[in-house]
């Protein structure tokens, strides 16, 4: 953030949790090397965001959403823009979180559920609509969406793919004014991409396939016929 900000990075216990999560975010990429400038930016952005939104604070998963944003600004070939990367990342992160925050919030109608539960229900309905036999099989083995898609929603799929693939998905995701509309369809298509393996497997095999998503062709997945709505 801008030099001279009034918020101290040492005045909250949240800082320890943020530091722990940031230190292991996208650690395979040199840009996010331990102690590097990208990690410092992420620490600042997440801490200040949590301070400005005390009703939400910092929640694990926000670090994963911030990482692609920092990556885009930090790798911009225009050096004069990189100088403002931290501030730009904060603005973009805040804008995206305005849409994503309801996922983390408790449902007003049912305090035992969060916003992401509603989204996973939508995924269930889509899967039933587009592939009833697969939906029935997953139900029969006891595999519910919360066991495999919770992370997809709260991190906007950043944990499932490489940075390049994540940015490809985000291009379409952020172009969708409804945001979650596209995410629902991508999530449903990801489940269907493992169809053959899932139909041959029991609970553990299905769970492993959907947690690892082997051999996913993201271009084919994103252009599946079910996306024509």
Secondary-structure blueprint:
Blueprint: H1 14-22, H2 37-52, H3 62-74, H4 79-82, H5 85-104, H6 115-130, H7 132-140, H8 150-154, H9 163-175, H10 180-193, H11 195-199, H12 203-212, H13 218-222
Quick structural overview:
The protein has 13 helices and no strands. The chain has helices at 14-22, 37-52, 62-74, 79-82, 85-104, 115-130, 132-140, 150-154, 163-175, 180-193, 195-199, 203-212, 218-222.
Written description of the protein model:
This protein has 13 helices and no strands. It is globular. Helix 2 crosses helix 3 (62-74) and helix 6 crosses helix 10. The chain is mainly alpha-helical. The N and C termini lie far apart (41 Å). It folds into 2 domains: 9-103, Orthogonal Bundle (Helicase, Ruva Protein, domain 3); 108-223, Cyclin A, domain 1 (Orthogonal Bundle), CATH 1.10.472.80. Helix content is 61%, strand content 0%.
Shape: globular
- List segments where confidence is low: pLDDT < 50 over at least 5 consecutive residues: 1-9, 225-229
Question: Could you say which structural class the secondary elements and strand pairing correspond to?
Answer: mainly alpha
Q: What is the correct CATH architecture of the largest domain?
A: Orthogonal Bundle
Q: Output the number of helix runs.
A: 13
The total tally of domains equals 2
N to C succession of SSEs: HHHHHHHHHHHHH
Radius of gyration: 19 Å
Distance between the termini: 41 Å
Question: What's the count of strands?
Answer: 0
- Beta percentage is under 5%
């Amino acid at each position: 953030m801008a030099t001279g900000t009034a918020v101290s990075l040492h005045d909250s216990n949240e800082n320890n949790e943020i530091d722990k999560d940031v230190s292991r975010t996208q650690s395979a990429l040199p840009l996010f090397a331990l102690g590097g400038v990208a990690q410092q930016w992420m620490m600042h952005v997440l801490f200040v965001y949590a301070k400005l939104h005390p009703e939400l604070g910092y929640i694990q998963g926000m670090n994963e959403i911030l990482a692609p944003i920092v990556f885009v600004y930090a790798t911009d070939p225009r050096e004069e823009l990189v100088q403002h990367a931290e501030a730009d990342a904060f603005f973009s992160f805040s804008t995206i979180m305005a849409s994503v925050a309801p996922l983390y919030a408790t449902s007003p109608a049912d305090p035992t559920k969060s916003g992401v539960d509603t989204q996973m229900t939508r995924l269930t309905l889509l899967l039933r609509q587009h592939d009833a036999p697969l939906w029935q099989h997953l139900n029969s083995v006891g595999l519910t969406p919360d066991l495999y898609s919770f992370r997809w929603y709260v991190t906007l799929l950043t944990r499932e793919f490489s940075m390049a693939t994540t940015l490809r998905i985000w291009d379409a995701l952020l172009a969708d004014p409804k945001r979650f509309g596209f995410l629902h369809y991508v999530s449903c298509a990801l489940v269907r991409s493992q169809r053959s393996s899932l139909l041959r497997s029991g609970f553990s095999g299905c769970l492993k396939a959907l947690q690892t998503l082997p051999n996913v062709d993201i271009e084919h997945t994103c252009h599946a016929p079910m996306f024509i709505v």
